[in-house]
Specification:
The complex is a heterodimer of chains A (about 270) and B (about 280).
Chain A (H helix, E strand, L loop, with lengths): L2 H30 L19 H8 L2 H32 L5 H9 L10 H11 L3 H26 L3 H9 L4 H12 L1 H17 L2 H6 L8 H11 L4 H35 L1
Helix pairs in contact in A: 1-12, 2-12, 3-6, 3-9, 3-11, 6-9, 6-12, 9-12, 11-12
Chain B lengths: L3 H21 L2 E2 L8 E2 L3 H7 L2 H31 L5 H11 L6 H12 L5 H8 L16 H26 L3 H9 L4 H30 L2 H6 L11 H10 L4 H32 L1
Helix pairs in contact in B: 3-7, 3-9, 4-7, 7-9, 9-12, 11-12
The chains are: A mainly alpha (about 270), B mainly alpha (about 280).
Amino acid sequence: MSRRLAARLSDAFYALLALIFMLPLIWTVVGSFRASGLRTEPWGLPERLNLSNYAAAWEGKIGVYLLNSTVVTVISVLVIIALSAPAAYAFARLRFRGSSLMLGFILTGLLIPAHAVLIPLYQLNAALGVGDYLAIIGPYVAFGLPLSVLLLRAYFVEIPRELMEAAIMDGAGHMRILWTIFMPIAKPAVATVAIFQASWIWNELPFALVFIASGSHYTLPIGLLSFRGEHITDWGAILAGVTISVVPLMVLYLLFQKHIVRGLTAGAVK
Amino acid sequence: MLVLPAAVVFAFYITYPLLHTIVLSAYSWSALNPVRTWQGMGNYVELYHDPVLRVALINNGLWIVLSLVLQLPLAMLLALGIGSALRRHRMLRTLFFSPLIVPAVAVGLIWQLFYEPNFGALNALFEAIGLDGWTAGWLGDPKLATLCIIIVSSWRYTGFHMMILLAGLQAIPDDIYEAARIDGASAWRTFWHITLPLMKRIVLVDALLITVGSVKIFDLIWVMTEGGPNRASEVLATYMYRTAFSDDRMGYAAAIATVMLVLTLIATVIYVRLTGQEEAEA
């Protein structure tokens, strides 16, 4: 068997596998455009492009949830980057006492389950009278820091030391070096951090479930769950809601995807 | 000074609450009646005899083993097969990664409908291709529920692990492969004797991620079965959540959370040991 043919066959195999993998998602999108028949003929196709499910999802306030999730995700990711970049810079480039201890301390967060902090934070929020956005953004940022510090640090370490030294000669402070030299060079790592953090915050369930009290502040995950309660049989609306909830992250991912492996590679080698 | 803001936020939202959970597990109280009574090890004694905890522990064990067995080899296969920079490989990678971008709640809802015993797509598919005997109650069947959700989770995360392994794969210098090819080594031998040994470290890191993820697993189960039917698919996280926020037994729930924490710690120590051995041998 020639090398070429083998490569073709292997590609065909992976393409088939990908198709099977995508089946539930394709099925969801197709189903979201069907007016009826979801129960009688689950594999049927829509007779024509029918938007009634989307209308029902809109009725179910999917737009509000979408907006809430966007606000929470954008704020959290910006704060994560603003806090983790200086820390990663210090860990990568400055020698200070206890630096490896401090790094280890923050990296423990990669492993800690959210459930291990739920009760004390629930009490804290109750005692402070804090709810909704304010209550969830804090833990989102804290849990986002470890991975961000890890990935950014790994990338910063590979930036030639001379760049920093030259800038210091010119009288630039560390913050300026970080934001004007390091961050632009580390774009793949920043993109990787942004997409990973955005996707877990967009999807996060336990904190949102416990801390968000008012329906008008629901993020997408609990919003979608509430669909199941309200429209007990309207699976069409759920499929439409699911489809809507995927679009923003899909766009973000397609924009950033070429950076992702590069951003991870630096982290993997170190 | 540059580290301080991050460290403070981290300590405030993670380290301090974490320690607080351990302290709280020695008390009993509820949100309705917040007066705490000292229990000492009482909650842990109760946990030791708790049949639901036993089910949850067994299920978490099943999650760990099956997730490793399903996800690691498939992720490796994908990383090796479609890891190149070719445009069609990049597109395929995007497809395999895409379930990760779908919110876990959405994934749970889709698959719930897929598994639905009466009008679900999976049973309909089996009937259509003549495999009537394969139809089942899926999530409604206590024996199958956990397995069904593990499959969904593997479907969702394999693409992510492919990316991690791919990052390790790309760190291997090309000239090593070149040398192997000149020596006439087969693809199979090259994989076992060159690729795998050089990737051991990242494979171990990835295995740790899968293991810890399986100890923490919550979302998919909560959406698809809420730990049912009749608690058959309960895991530590769902049990902890129910105990705290439905049954309102905060101290007992804190004890369950502490068990989760200890298991995570044990898993980490084991993997760190394994990685350390790797380096000592190298």
